Amino acid sequence: MYKKKECVAMLLAGGQGSRLYALTTKIAKPAVTFGGKYRIIDFPLSNCVNSGIDTVGVLTQYQPLVLNEYIGNGQPWDLDRSFGGVHILSPYQAKNRSDWYKGTANAIYQNLYFIKTYDPDYVLVLSGDHIYKMDYSAMLDFHKENGAACTIAAIKVPMEETSRFGIINTAEGGRITEFEEKPKHARSDLASMGIYIFNADKLYSYLEADDADPKSTNDFGKDILPKMLAAGERLFAYTFEGYWKDVGTIESLYEANMDLLGENPTLDLSDSGWRIHSRNPIAPPQYVGKDAKIRNSIVSLGCEIEGTVENSVLSSGVVVGKGAVVKDSIIMSGAEIADGAVVTYSIVDEEARVGASARVGEERASGNGITVVGRGCKVDENAVVGGGQILDICEK
Amino acid sequence: MSNAIGIVFSNIHDSDLPELTQQRTLASIPFCGRYRLVDFTLSNMVNSDITKVGVITKSNYQSLMDHIGSGKDWDLARRYGGLRILPPFGVQENSSLYNTRLEALKNNVGFIEKSSEEYVVMTDCDLVCNMDYDEVIRFHIRRNADVTLVYSMADAAEMTPTNNTVLSLGDGGKVEEMAFAPRVHGKVPLFANVFVMKRDLLYNLVKDAISHNKHHFSSEVIAENIDALRIYGFEHRGYIAKITSLVSYYEKSMELLDRDRMNEIFFNNNVFTKVRDSAPTVYGDDASVSNSLIADGCVIEGKVKNSILFRGVNVAKGAVVDGCILMQDTVVCEKASLKCIITDKNVVITERRKLAGCDVNPFYLRKGSTV
Q: Chains A, B: CB contacts under 8 A, how many?
């Protein structure tokens, strides 16, 4: 029986995320915890499902264990399907070649067989390191209306920050005229979000040509898109309005978490019309002790709070002991802040332990930066970890 | 995999809690922030390696079906065994719904017959405890028993019309007498309505009872065979909360604010429930929370103490919630004040409203009401 899918999503999740330092020593960037109970990949996956796209290939390469386990059969996202659903695509050995994924385009190229199984009209390419809520079906409509070969999602950024992004110059109607990679003097404030929709046949032919070109770096942004533009293809920019954050650095990951706090948070996770699905931990409700003080914070399942928590984001199963203070910080699942410890302006990764009366981090005002306690690290009793220090993963 | 099947009675004690079972089974009564009573029973089954579980339903069971679904959240969506809902089975000569445990078993004799496991564990859904059925089965085998009844030492005052079987125990826990609603005082071995026996024996007892037109399982089938069968009592020594009335529902809920009890029930985070994908709970700038259990998806801007908040509860600025159980999606508007109140799901407490019950007689607001 002939079956097809209109649109297949390919999620690039193989990056190391080296600028997240200790947070990605053992796990791939898309598997990093965000917003208490989520992992970064929950956002693009949930966006797919909420946009009606039920076939997603997740391309993994770097430290895939946690990510693979987390995605599993895709049940939390309703992606356990008999036709379609979520598939982990890791590099594999083939008859004529066996390569790691060399670039974003090469990763997709090596999995063309997967895409072609579904005979899609369109292919959506996503990155696994952005936090945003976006309806891809609206972007697909835009793509169809314009009869485009490729549509790139773009967001307006402040003019002074354009030098950090891939900037898109467009003509009337959104047709792309030029790409500028991190320009010193940009002529537009439209930055590429790294989200592409291709007509499937165009994608196939450009990927095949790219693979045959030995000088190519096999990257969408550097090779495929400029070649398409040069060949006169119809490339359009779809302007996205809303919250979008690349969480590729410690600072941006921290800021994105902090965006969840406050009276009217810039990122709203409780929107029942656009639920972010995740694999839920199995834990009882959080317990807030008799002397606990919690304000302006987000706290997840299974936490036990006896101390003070302010302007912070706590993942599931976090323990904050008596007299302990957690301020302006992100504490990931299963971490323990023992009695009397003080954690300020820090990220404490999963299963780490800050010993009794230890001091971790310094106020933001000190200018020393965010302190990071890596996965499973133990900070001794009464120890002091200064502002901006990064304790890498500690093996058990 | 254990060599036993589980049978769970979801409706047996509905009449004990008329308020909370108006629109649901006793099994689907919300408990402890994010659970339903059946979660504790099903989790005990799974944690005891019993992976074929029949849940006998009678009436009002939409909420239960909605909650347990395929059994996936308990790892009970299985190719072999897994969860089986056993709804009423109408046959021509017996078209009315059953009223007793025995009648329920008669209706489901096929499930018992067609299984291949050696043992059966039968339980109700009014217990909140961490019980290892495997340990009970091992005790059963060690004693070479025909029937094992699980009991706990309980205050005689806790007896109710559906929960009143007191055991008299001899050597090694041999049950010498089963007394129904006796006049007793102090701590007594109160039967928890958990039975273990061989599947064949249960099948034969039920078949025999049908041919003798009996109605009550404990009194007419088990108690009357007390000399013919080797019946033993197994004491559950751990914490056990029996939900027998609205007041006990309130008391037992509040007991879970005690960390030791909570840690015993939730040892190793092994109580499973349906997942709702709520966002984590948000504490506002003026939030003040103490000694409370808070589920996911709440937004708290007011004062909450000594309370249990279910998923999606909203406590606005200036509101005070003390000694309350607020079920899913309850909204407490600004400056409202609640003391010893149980709200069912989707209740709205309007601005500045002041409501109070007392701890021995909490005030209950029914599902969907606005006050």
A: 113
Q: d(Cα B69, Cα B273) in Å, to the nearest integer?
A: 11
Q: List residues in chain B touching A: CB distance below 8 A.
A: 32-34, 72, 257, 259, 262, 265-266, 269-272, 275, 277-297, 299, 308-309
**pTM for this entry:** 0.90
Domain ranges of chain B: 4-266, 282-365
DSSP tally for chain A: helices H, then strands E: 8, 31
Assembly ipTM? 0.88
* Percent with pLDDT over 90 in chain A: 74
Q: How far is B9 from chain A (nearest CA, A)?
A: 24
Written as one letter, the residue type at B175 is: V
Strands (E) located in B156-306: 165-169, 175-180, 187-198, 231-235, 240-242, 281-283, 288-290, 292-294, 299-300, 303-305
CATH topology of domain B282-365: UDP N-Acetylglucosamine Acyltransferase; domain 1 (2.160.10)
Give domain B4-266's CATH architecture. Answer: Alpha-Beta Complex (3.90)
User: Which H or E run contains A70?
Assistant: helix A65-71
Contact A284 B269 (CB under 8 A): yes
How does the average pLDDT of chain B come out, rounded? 92
pLDDT of residue B5: 96
Q: What is the mean pLDDT of residues A79-94?
A: 90
* B277, B309, B328: best to mutate for the A interface, most A CBs within 10 A: B277
Residue in A37, A292, A296 nearest the CB of B289: A292
pLDDT > 70 fraction of chain A, expressed in percent and rounded: 99
Q: Which of B62, B55, B75 is nearest to B21 (CA)?
A: B62
User: What is the widest separation between alpha-carbon atoms in chain A?
Assistant: 68
Determine the Cα–Cα distance for residues A322 and A290; give it in Å rounded to an integer.
10
Distance from C-alpha of A152 to C-alpha of A194, rounded to nearest angstrom: 7
